[in-house]
Write a structure and sequence with these properties.
This protein is an all-alpha fold and 71 residues long. The protein has 2 helices and no strands. The N and C termini lie far apart (83 Å).
Length: 71
């Protein structure tokens, strides 16, 4: 019975080790180190150049003036 358990243990160990090796190999093959880095793509919701954008001014001076107006 011990021999059967040892065989089963080493068979599972070999399957897991083989799967880990295959995963590492595929990840390395998909990585192309020789390729030049490409320019990052803009975010789909990013405004086009020249579009007006709404924003909130949270500078210290602006917040202090708002605080002083409220009190």
């Amino acid at each position: 019975m011990d021999a059967l358990f040892a065989f089963f243990y080493f068979a599972c160990f070999a399957a897991i080790a083989g799967g880990a090796f295959a995963l590492m190999r595929q990840n390395l093959r998909q990585t192309d180190w020789r390729a030049a880095p490409s320019a990052p793509r803009p975010h789909p919701e990013a405004p086009a150049p020249g579009d007006s954008v709404m924003y909130v001014d949270l500078s210290r001076e602006r917040l202090e003036s708002l605080y002083n107006q409220a009190g």
